[in-house]
Amino acid sequence: MEPAPLPLIDEHVRALPGDAAQAWDAVVAVLGRALDRSLGPLTHVWGFQPPRPGGPRPLQVGSWGPGFTVTAFEPGERLDLSGHHRFARYRLEVLLDPPADGRVVVRVRTLATFRGRRGRVYRALVIGTGAHVVAMGRLLAGFDRARRRAPVAA
């Protein structure tokens, strides 16, 4: 039995200069670094699944890091990270729109469901306070920085 679909929480958008391959490389580099990090004691406190980095590298379906597993990997188009912990089940979808005017629009969608009373409290702390918006802004800025640091094709 498949789990119920996850409701959309929000979507954040940023246009990156360059072509689709450059934007994709930036997305994969930033998310690859994120998945390779340890979250230390938070892993146990929150009960992140999976708890630690592993799986194939470079990133592909089946790669994982604390709290996330790569569940979709379509180069130049889409990378999904799915996971769960004590309070929520979630998916982060990174979508690249076709290039236009020398830019690629990157959309990051968050879908999640929150479990019980503690899940509602967690949602209020993470989503309700704006902390999630800040985190997604930092993620998109990281894509932009990685893109700008990448060598320009001749």
Order of helices and strands: EHHEEEEEHH
Largest beta sheet: strand ordering:
1-6-5-4-3-2
C-alpha termini separation: 50 Å
Helix residue percentage: 25-40%
- Based on Cα principal axes, name the global outline: globular
Strand content: 25-35%
Structural class: alpha+beta
Stretches with pLDDT under 50, minimum 5 residues = none
Whole-angstrom Rg: 16 Å
Q: Count every helix, treating DSSP H or I runs of 4 or more residues as helices.
A: 4
Mean pLDDT: 93
Oligomer: single chain
Main beta sheet: 6 strands, antiparallel
Number of strands: 6
Provide tags for this entry.
alpha+beta; 154 residues; 6-stranded antiparallel sheet; 35% helix; single chain
SSE inventory with pairings:
Blueprint: E1 8-17, H1 20-35, H2 41-46, E2 64-65, E3 68-74, E4 78-84, E5 88-96, E6 103-114, H3 116-128, H4 131-149
Antiparallel strand pairs: 1-6, 2-3, 3-4, 4-5, 5-6
Helix pairs in contact: 1-4
